[in-house]
Amino acid sequence: MSAEPQAASPFDARPSVVFADDDEVMRSLLGIQLQRAFDFTGMAASADEAIEVVCAKRPDVAVLDVNMPGGGARRAIDGIRRCSPETAIVILSGDETHATVVELLLHGAEVYLRKGIDGASLAEQLTFAIEAHRNRRSVEAAERVDAPTGNANSH
Q: Which of 78, 73, 102, 103 is nearest to 90 (CA)?
């Protein structure tokens, strides 16, 4: 289920966010914690819904739980990267298994956070993830431009 986007004024520069977690209480809590700092543009309860909502809304950041129906965060990352490469991805989970953390970070998540993080720290980490993702995409774009000349590091 997705929420309708809020109308943004030209003066409203809040970044947009989509939450994907199969726990409805967690989705609501995240919305409450971040409502002042972020424009809540949608929610999802499965990997398929996360992909659908992010593709439709193209938020600045998507917050994903590791274990959701439909393939979890790994599958959601794949779909989101294909349809909305400009969206930063943050994992918010109670699963801190080293292999899971490393796999999802290598697979495209910018940040991996533990559930229970306070709202101010969460907002700070989401903002960091958005900036880190934008910076990485800028570097990748510059490298693609320079690649034919062999001058990937000339900037």
A: 73
Q: Report how far residue 142's alpha carbon sits from residue 76's, in angstroms, rounded to the nearest whole number.
A: 27
Domains of the chain: 16-122 (3.40.50.2300)
Residues 28-82 pLDDT 10s = 888 888 989 999 999 999 999 999 999 999 999 999 999 999 999 999 999 999 9
Q: List the beta bridge partners of residue 20.
A: 44, 64
- Alpha carbon distance 155, 139 (integer Å): 9
Give residue-wise pLDDT tens across range 99-113. 999 999 999 999 999
Distance between CA atoms of 25 and 45, rounded to whole angstroms? 11
Helix axes 47-57, 72-83, angle to 10 degrees: 20
Residue labelled with tokens 């600045």: 60
Nearest residue to 132 via CA among 110, 109, 112: 110
The confidence score (pLDDT) of residue 8 equals 43
